[in-house]
Design brief:
Layout: H1 4-7, E1 15-19, H2 24-35, E2 39-44, H3 52-55, E3 63-66, H4 72-81, E4 86-89, H5 96-101, H6 103-122, E5 130-136, H7 159-178, E6 182-187, E7 189-191, H8 201-210, E8 216-217, E9 224-225, E10 227-229, H9 230-242, E11 253-256, E12 262-263, H10 264-274, E13 283-284, H11 300-306, H12 314-331
Parallel strand pairs: 1-2, 1-4, 2-3, 4-5, 5-6, 6-11, 7-10, 8-13
Antiparallel strand pairs: 9-12
Helix pairs in contact: 2-9, 4-6, 6-7, 8-10, 8-12
Length: 337
Protein backbone atom coordinates (compact mmCIF):
# COMPACT_ATOMS: atom_id res chain seq x y z
CA UNK A 1 0.00 0.00 0.00
CA UNK A 2 1.28 3.45 -0.85
CA UNK A 3 2.23 5.67 2.07
CA UNK A 4 0.46 8.99 2.50
CA UNK A 5 3.73 10.75 1.69
CA UNK A 6 4.01 9.17 -1.77
CA UNK A 7 0.38 9.77 -2.69
CA UNK A 8 0.25 13.40 -1.62
CA UNK A 9 2.96 15.39 -3.43
CA UNK A 10 0.57 18.34 -3.86
CA UNK A 11 -0.75 18.50 -0.29
CA UNK A 12 1.73 21.22 0.64
CA UNK A 13 -0.11 23.61 -1.69
CA UNK A 14 -3.60 22.73 -0.48
CA UNK A 15 -5.90 24.47 1.98
CA UNK A 16 -7.86 21.72 3.67
CA UNK A 17 -10.98 22.00 5.83
CA UNK A 18 -11.52 19.19 8.33
CA UNK A 19 -14.88 19.24 10.08
CA UNK A 20 -14.77 17.42 13.39
CA UNK A 21 -11.04 18.09 13.58
CA UNK A 22 -10.96 17.65 17.35
CA UNK A 23 -12.72 14.29 17.19
CA UNK A 24 -11.11 10.88 17.34
CA UNK A 25 -10.52 10.31 13.61
CA UNK A 26 -10.33 14.01 12.81
CA UNK A 27 -7.35 14.45 15.15
CA UNK A 28 -5.40 11.72 13.35
CA UNK A 29 -6.33 13.11 9.93
CA UNK A 30 -5.19 16.62 10.92
CA UNK A 31 -1.91 15.20 12.22
CA UNK A 32 -1.25 13.45 8.90
CA UNK A 33 -2.23 16.49 6.81
CA UNK A 34 0.09 18.72 8.83
CA UNK A 35 2.93 16.24 8.31
CA UNK A 36 2.30 16.49 4.55
CA UNK A 37 2.55 20.27 4.70
CA UNK A 38 -1.11 21.11 4.10
CA UNK A 39 -2.66 24.29 5.46
CA UNK A 40 -5.37 22.91 7.74
CA UNK A 41 -8.57 24.75 8.60
CA UNK A 42 -10.17 22.97 11.56
CA UNK A 43 -13.87 23.31 12.33
CA UNK A 44 -14.20 22.73 16.06
CA UNK A 45 -17.33 22.85 18.21
CA UNK A 46 -15.85 22.26 21.69
CA UNK A 47 -12.28 22.72 22.93
CA UNK A 48 -11.69 19.49 24.81
CA UNK A 49 -8.15 19.52 26.28
CA UNK A 50 -8.12 15.70 26.25
CA UNK A 51 -8.65 15.60 22.49
CA UNK A 52 -5.50 14.55 20.64
CA UNK A 53 -5.92 17.67 18.46
CA UNK A 54 -5.46 19.93 21.49
CA UNK A 55 -3.38 17.65 23.73
CA UNK A 56 -0.68 17.24 21.05
CA UNK A 57 -0.55 20.96 20.23
CA UNK A 58 -1.63 20.36 16.62
CA UNK A 59 -4.25 23.10 17.01
CA UNK A 60 -1.45 25.66 17.14
CA UNK A 61 -0.40 24.70 13.60
CA UNK A 62 -3.94 24.87 12.18
CA UNK A 63 -6.44 27.64 11.58
CA UNK A 64 -9.24 26.95 14.06
CA UNK A 65 -12.79 27.99 13.19
CA UNK A 66 -15.17 27.61 16.13
CA UNK A 67 -18.71 26.69 15.13
CA UNK A 68 -21.34 24.06 14.57
CA UNK A 69 -22.39 22.36 11.35
CA UNK A 70 -25.87 23.82 11.85
CA UNK A 71 -24.39 27.34 11.57
CA UNK A 72 -24.07 28.14 7.87
CA UNK A 73 -22.17 31.36 8.61
CA UNK A 74 -19.39 29.37 10.34
CA UNK A 75 -19.17 27.06 7.33
CA UNK A 76 -19.08 30.04 4.96
CA UNK A 77 -16.20 31.45 6.99
CA UNK A 78 -14.32 28.15 6.93
CA UNK A 79 -14.72 27.65 3.16
CA UNK A 80 -14.84 31.14 1.68
CA UNK A 81 -12.73 33.32 3.96
CA UNK A 82 -10.03 30.66 4.31
CA UNK A 83 -10.21 29.71 0.60
CA UNK A 84 -10.58 26.00 1.14
CA UNK A 85 -9.94 23.74 -1.86
CA UNK A 86 -10.33 20.34 -0.11
CA UNK A 87 -12.96 19.29 2.45
CA UNK A 88 -13.00 16.27 4.73
CA UNK A 89 -16.41 16.08 6.41
CA UNK A 90 -16.01 14.05 9.59
CA UNK A 91 -18.06 16.05 12.11
CA UNK A 92 -21.08 14.11 13.36
CA UNK A 93 -22.81 12.67 16.37
CA UNK A 94 -21.15 9.26 16.17
CA UNK A 95 -22.63 7.14 18.96
CA UNK A 96 -25.54 4.73 18.61
CA UNK A 97 -26.71 5.04 22.23
CA UNK A 98 -27.01 8.84 22.35
CA UNK A 99 -28.66 8.79 18.91
CA UNK A 100 -31.33 6.42 20.21
CA UNK A 101 -31.90 8.58 23.30
CA UNK A 102 -31.83 11.96 21.47
CA UNK A 103 -32.62 11.46 17.78
CA UNK A 104 -33.42 15.13 17.04
CA UNK A 105 -29.92 16.31 17.95
CA UNK A 106 -28.42 13.49 15.90
CA UNK A 107 -30.53 14.38 12.85
CA UNK A 108 -29.65 18.07 13.25
CA UNK A 109 -25.93 17.32 13.32
CA UNK A 110 -25.66 14.46 10.84
CA UNK A 111 -28.33 15.42 8.29
CA UNK A 112 -28.79 19.18 8.48
CA UNK A 113 -25.09 19.65 9.13
CA UNK A 114 -24.20 17.66 6.02
CA UNK A 115 -26.50 19.51 3.64
CA UNK A 116 -25.38 22.86 5.10
CA UNK A 117 -21.78 22.00 4.30
CA UNK A 118 -22.53 20.60 0.85
CA UNK A 119 -24.55 23.70 -0.01
CA UNK A 120 -21.74 26.02 1.05
CA UNK A 121 -19.35 24.01 -1.12
CA UNK A 122 -21.79 24.21 -4.04
CA UNK A 123 -21.83 28.00 -3.75
CA UNK A 124 -18.04 28.15 -4.17
CA UNK A 125 -17.18 25.96 -7.18
CA UNK A 126 -14.15 28.13 -7.92
CA UNK A 127 -12.66 27.18 -4.57
CA UNK A 128 -13.70 23.64 -3.59
CA UNK A 129 -12.17 20.96 -5.80
CA UNK A 130 -12.59 17.80 -3.72
CA UNK A 131 -14.86 16.67 -0.86
CA UNK A 132 -14.72 13.44 1.13
CA UNK A 133 -17.78 12.62 3.24
CA UNK A 134 -17.22 10.17 6.08
CA UNK A 135 -20.15 7.78 6.17
CA UNK A 136 -20.36 4.40 7.90
CA UNK A 137 -21.32 0.78 7.41
CA UNK A 138 -24.33 1.70 9.57
CA UNK A 139 -25.76 3.50 6.52
CA UNK A 140 -26.64 0.10 5.02
CA UNK A 141 -28.88 -0.83 7.94
CA UNK A 142 -29.75 -4.48 8.29
CA UNK A 143 -29.23 -6.50 5.11
CA UNK A 144 -30.21 -10.12 4.40
CA UNK A 145 -26.79 -10.92 2.96
CA UNK A 146 -23.28 -9.94 4.01
CA UNK A 147 -20.70 -8.57 3.48
CA UNK A 148 -22.01 -5.12 2.62
CA UNK A 149 -21.28 -4.09 -0.96
CA UNK A 150 -21.60 -0.62 -2.45
CA UNK A 151 -24.41 -1.81 -4.76
CA UNK A 152 -26.68 -2.53 -1.79
CA UNK A 153 -29.44 -0.06 -0.88
CA UNK A 154 -29.10 2.21 2.14
CA UNK A 155 -31.77 1.03 4.57
CA UNK A 156 -31.08 2.55 7.97
CA UNK A 157 -33.90 2.07 10.48
CA UNK A 158 -32.65 3.14 13.92
CA UNK A 159 -31.87 6.88 14.41
CA UNK A 160 -28.09 6.67 14.00
CA UNK A 161 -28.35 4.41 10.94
CA UNK A 162 -30.95 6.72 9.37
CA UNK A 163 -28.77 9.78 9.94
CA UNK A 164 -25.88 8.10 8.12
CA UNK A 165 -28.10 6.83 5.29
CA UNK A 166 -29.45 10.35 4.77
CA UNK A 167 -26.06 12.06 4.86
CA UNK A 168 -24.74 9.52 2.37
CA UNK A 169 -27.68 10.07 0.00
CA UNK A 170 -27.35 13.85 0.29
CA UNK A 171 -23.74 13.65 -0.87
CA UNK A 172 -24.79 11.49 -3.83
CA UNK A 173 -27.58 13.94 -4.68
CA UNK A 174 -25.19 16.90 -4.75
CA UNK A 175 -22.92 15.03 -7.13
CA UNK A 176 -25.65 13.89 -9.51
CA UNK A 177 -27.57 17.18 -9.43
CA UNK A 178 -24.73 19.73 -9.32
CA UNK A 179 -21.61 17.70 -10.18
CA UNK A 180 -20.16 18.56 -6.80
CA UNK A 181 -16.75 16.79 -6.57
CA UNK A 182 -17.59 14.47 -3.71
CA UNK A 183 -16.87 10.86 -2.75
CA UNK A 184 -18.14 8.85 0.21
CA UNK A 185 -16.18 6.63 2.60
CA UNK A 186 -18.09 3.87 4.42
CA UNK A 187 -15.93 2.41 7.16
CA UNK A 188 -16.39 -0.38 9.64
CA UNK A 189 -15.80 0.10 13.38
CA UNK A 190 -12.81 2.42 13.63
CA UNK A 191 -10.52 2.00 16.62
CA UNK A 192 -7.24 3.50 17.79
CA UNK A 193 -5.63 5.78 20.36
CA UNK A 194 -7.38 9.03 21.14
CA UNK A 195 -10.94 7.71 21.15
CA UNK A 196 -12.41 9.17 24.35
CA UNK A 197 -15.87 7.67 23.91
CA UNK A 198 -15.53 5.09 26.66
CA UNK A 199 -18.82 3.41 25.74
CA UNK A 200 -17.07 2.03 22.65
CA UNK A 201 -15.74 -1.45 23.16
CA UNK A 202 -12.02 -0.91 22.44
CA UNK A 203 -11.26 2.17 24.58
CA UNK A 204 -13.77 1.11 27.22
CA UNK A 205 -12.16 -2.32 27.59
CA UNK A 206 -8.64 -0.89 27.77
CA UNK A 207 -9.67 1.62 30.43
CA UNK A 208 -11.45 -1.00 32.54
CA UNK A 209 -8.49 -3.36 32.43
CA UNK A 210 -6.07 -0.52 33.24
CA UNK A 211 -8.13 0.20 36.35
CA UNK A 212 -8.20 -3.49 37.30
CA UNK A 213 -11.91 -3.82 36.54
CA UNK A 214 -13.88 -6.31 34.50
CA UNK A 215 -14.55 -4.95 30.98
CA UNK A 216 -18.22 -4.20 30.31
CA UNK A 217 -20.01 -5.61 27.26
CA UNK A 218 -23.36 -3.87 26.81
CA UNK A 219 -24.62 -6.48 24.31
CA UNK A 220 -24.57 -10.25 24.75
CA UNK A 221 -21.11 -10.31 23.15
CA UNK A 222 -22.20 -11.94 19.90
CA UNK A 223 -22.45 -8.76 17.77
CA UNK A 224 -20.30 -9.25 14.69
CA UNK A 225 -18.28 -6.24 13.49
CA UNK A 226 -15.55 -5.26 11.04
CA UNK A 227 -12.75 -3.45 12.93
CA UNK A 228 -10.40 -1.11 11.05
CA UNK A 229 -7.45 0.81 12.51
CA UNK A 230 -7.61 4.60 12.47
CA UNK A 231 -4.36 5.01 10.50
CA UNK A 232 -5.76 2.85 7.72
CA UNK A 233 -8.89 5.02 7.67
CA UNK A 234 -6.85 8.22 7.42
CA UNK A 235 -4.98 6.72 4.49
CA UNK A 236 -8.30 5.79 2.87
CA UNK A 237 -9.59 9.37 3.17
CA UNK A 238 -6.42 10.78 1.64
CA UNK A 239 -6.55 8.30 -1.23
CA UNK A 240 -10.16 9.23 -1.95
CA UNK A 241 -9.35 12.94 -2.05
CA UNK A 242 -6.27 12.40 -4.18
CA UNK A 243 -8.27 10.44 -6.76
CA UNK A 244 -11.42 12.58 -6.92
CA UNK A 245 -10.54 13.88 -10.35
CA UNK A 246 -11.16 10.41 -11.82
CA UNK A 247 -14.52 9.42 -13.30
CA UNK A 248 -14.74 6.16 -11.41
CA UNK A 249 -14.20 7.93 -8.07
CA UNK A 250 -16.20 11.18 -8.13
CA UNK A 251 -19.76 10.61 -6.94
CA UNK A 252 -18.93 7.09 -5.79
CA UNK A 253 -19.10 5.35 -2.43
CA UNK A 254 -16.30 3.10 -1.17
CA UNK A 255 -16.22 0.55 1.64
CA UNK A 256 -13.14 0.38 3.87
CA UNK A 257 -12.71 -2.61 6.15
CA UNK A 258 -10.74 -5.81 6.64
CA UNK A 259 -13.69 -8.12 5.86
CA UNK A 260 -12.58 -10.17 8.86
CA UNK A 261 -15.53 -9.81 11.22
CA UNK A 262 -15.09 -10.57 14.91
CA UNK A 263 -17.54 -10.76 17.75
CA UNK A 264 -17.41 -8.14 20.47
CA UNK A 265 -16.51 -10.86 22.95
CA UNK A 266 -13.57 -11.98 20.78
CA UNK A 267 -12.23 -8.42 20.62
CA UNK A 268 -12.49 -8.02 24.39
CA UNK A 269 -10.72 -11.36 24.83
CA UNK A 270 -7.92 -10.27 22.48
CA UNK A 271 -7.39 -6.99 24.34
CA UNK A 272 -7.36 -8.80 27.71
CA UNK A 273 -4.75 -11.24 26.41
CA UNK A 274 -2.54 -8.49 24.97
CA UNK A 275 -2.68 -6.60 28.28
CA UNK A 276 -1.94 -9.76 30.27
CA UNK A 277 -5.22 -9.49 32.17
CA UNK A 278 -7.27 -12.44 30.92
CA UNK A 279 -8.25 -13.21 34.52
CA UNK A 280 -10.64 -10.21 34.45
CA UNK A 281 -13.63 -11.81 32.74
CA UNK A 282 -16.08 -9.53 30.89
CA UNK A 283 -19.25 -8.26 32.53
CA UNK A 284 -21.91 -9.10 29.91
CA UNK A 285 -24.98 -6.92 30.51
CA UNK A 286 -27.23 -7.52 27.46
CA UNK A 287 -28.55 -3.96 27.68
CA UNK A 288 -27.65 -2.54 24.24
CA UNK A 289 -30.41 -0.96 22.14
CA UNK A 290 -30.64 -0.22 18.43
CA UNK A 291 -27.73 -2.44 17.38
CA UNK A 292 -27.62 -4.51 14.17
CA UNK A 293 -26.52 -8.08 14.89
CA UNK A 294 -23.92 -8.46 12.11
CA UNK A 295 -22.07 -5.87 10.04
CA UNK A 296 -18.98 -6.24 7.90
CA UNK A 297 -17.77 -4.88 4.58
CA UNK A 298 -16.39 -5.99 1.24
CA UNK A 299 -13.63 -3.53 0.26
CA UNK A 300 -12.84 -4.94 -3.20
CA UNK A 301 -13.97 -1.75 -4.95
CA UNK A 302 -11.49 0.35 -2.94
CA UNK A 303 -8.77 -2.20 -3.60
CA UNK A 304 -9.39 -2.06 -7.36
CA UNK A 305 -10.05 1.63 -7.89
CA UNK A 306 -7.83 3.18 -5.21
CA UNK A 307 -5.24 0.44 -4.59
CA UNK A 308 -6.15 0.73 -0.90
CA UNK A 309 -4.83 -2.00 1.37
CA UNK A 310 -5.06 -1.99 5.16
CA UNK A 311 -1.59 -1.91 6.70
CA UNK A 312 -2.78 -3.21 10.08
CA UNK A 313 -4.27 -6.53 11.06
CA UNK A 314 -6.38 -6.36 14.21
CA UNK A 315 -3.71 -7.55 16.64
CA UNK A 316 -1.09 -5.06 15.40
CA UNK A 317 -3.60 -2.24 15.57
CA UNK A 318 -4.69 -3.23 19.07
CA UNK A 319 -1.08 -3.33 20.26
CA UNK A 320 -0.50 0.25 19.09
CA UNK A 321 -3.82 1.32 20.56
CA UNK A 322 -3.13 -0.23 23.97
CA UNK A 323 0.33 1.40 24.01
CA UNK A 324 -1.23 4.82 23.28
CA UNK A 325 -3.68 4.58 26.18
CA UNK A 326 -1.13 3.16 28.59
CA UNK A 327 1.24 6.00 27.76
CA UNK A 328 -1.35 8.72 28.18
CA UNK A 329 -2.78 7.21 31.36
CA UNK A 330 0.70 6.97 32.90
CA UNK A 331 1.46 10.56 31.93
CA UNK A 332 -1.86 11.77 33.33
CA UNK A 333 -2.62 13.31 29.93
CA UNK A 334 -5.93 11.50 29.52
CA UNK A 335 -8.46 11.14 32.32
CA UNK A 336 -9.58 7.60 32.99
CA UNK A 337 -11.75 8.11 36.06
Amino acid sequence: MESAATLGRAWGRRRVLVTGAAGFIGSWLVKELLSLGAHVVALVMDEDPQSEFFRSGDWRRATVVNGRLQDSSALQRAVNVHETDTVFHLAAQTLVGPAWRAPWETFESNIRGTYNLLEVCRLHPGLVKRIVVASSDKAYGGQPGLPYRETMPLEGRQPYEVSKSCADLLAQSYFHSYRLPVAIARCGNVYGGGDLNWSRIVPGTIRSLWRGERPVIRSDGSLLRDYVYVKDVVNAYLLLAENLGRRNVAGESFNFGLNKPMTVLAVVTAISRLMGLSRLKPDIRKSARGEIASQYLCAQKARRALKWRPAYELEAGLQETIAWYQGTFKAGACRHD
